[in-house]
Amino acid sequence: MNIVLQHIAPFVTCKHQLLINFRDSLTIDPFIPPRRKDKVVIVMGATGTGKSRLSIDLAKQFSAEVVNSDKMQIYEGLDIVTNKVTDKETCGIPHHLLSIIDPNEVFTATDFCQRASKAVDSIISKGQLPIIAGGSNSYIKALVNDDIEFKSRYECCFLWIDVNLKILQKFVSERVDKMVKEGLVDEAREFFNPDGDYTSGIRRAIGVPEMHQYFINENNKMINENTRDKMLQIAIENIKVNTCKLACCQRQNILRLESQLEWKINRLDATEAFEKKDGEAHQAWNRIVYERSTQIVRHFRGE
Ligand code: ATP
Asked: For the chain, what is the domain count?
């Protein structure tokens, strides 16, 4: 209903009152307090820093659900190559936008904004906390900075897991060796394109284009086993180099978002957890990443 006669009445003279039919023509909406923004946590960090681990730990603590923001993990397939969380690792926490797009489809930042907003909405409607986690900073920027609808409805708390680049690069290189043992080569072979086009869909994932030369030659009877092995080693080395470059670019992009857009990003330096081993690494992670981010999220939620 439209009323505000009592609010404006003191400012209207008697003469005006005679001229204006208040009921029919002068109506103002009643005072509506601005809508309180819903809260969203965003976990950022370069590849290999532990974003999935932290988002799952926080989800358990705060009754949350995770929305993936890694542009390659959005596609179906390449679970090992793109380092997707396994069912066991999710600990039953619902994950959105993971393996939902056909590997050959074009998926844009605009598509991400639409899907992510919908996922966040549905999580909030269930009374849960949305945690957006992934390394694709261009998607995060598109959602948080460029999507007016999202900006007007949600307040974000940014957590950034940072690791000394040299130490992180050693870690991601070793991770590539583990991926190879787990089946990276067979997975990548499914997306081998004899035409050599790796510019769209999931074929852009690091781990696929690098294997091209090896796959072209792997059944070539003219090439001996020794040479084939060398080709595989070169491909694996290239995957390591490109993953290290990705880590460096992603870190630079976070720094750029922080300085250019003036986002208040909570940096958690997890280097110590990466320098230690086993139980000590676990303890360091809990202290400098998990416990600190728990405090930050509690404060953000006004608890
Ligand atoms: P850019 O604008 O450079 O694409 P971005 O922030 O949108 O950056 P990133 O997550 O940094 O997205 O991905 C950049 C590129 O890194 C991807 O196009 C892909 O080649 C590779 N990449 C990203 N995530 C993965 C992944 N999980 N597995 C393999 N490769 C990946």
From this structure: 3
